[in-house]
Design goal:
Elements: H1 5-15, H2 19-44, H3 49-62, H4 70-75, H5 81-89
């Protein structure tokens, strides 16, 4: 297998480093390789609509949305006989 120019330069540079640093570079490169594999696997596993809907409904059930309606109540006109009579005298 023919190495590229970049691969040759990386190997030459790494060979001149102490063994501890070579191990760090190897560990980091394996970490990157695993991360790339996980990301590509995650992208290839697109959830179906039914499973996405199931997950959404489970989230909604676990964390219900609380709506404060007091804001809307302040905008409503007050309709009661008492207030109408009171307003007529003012």
């Amino acid at each position: 297998m023919q190495m590229t120019y970049i691969e040759e330069n990386i190997l030459q540079t790494v060979q001149h480093l102490p063994v501890e640093k070579q191990q760090e570079i190897l560990d980091f490169s394996l970490f990157l390789k695993n991360k790339i594999e996980r990301v590509s696997l995650k992208k290839s596993q697109k959830p179906s609509f039914s499973s996405a809907l199931h997950d959404f409904l489970a989230d909604v059930k676990n964390t219900p949305i609380e709506i404060d309606t007091q804001l809307f109540d302040n905008d409503r006109a007050v309709i009661s006989g008492r207030n109408l009579i009171f307003n007529w005298f003012n």
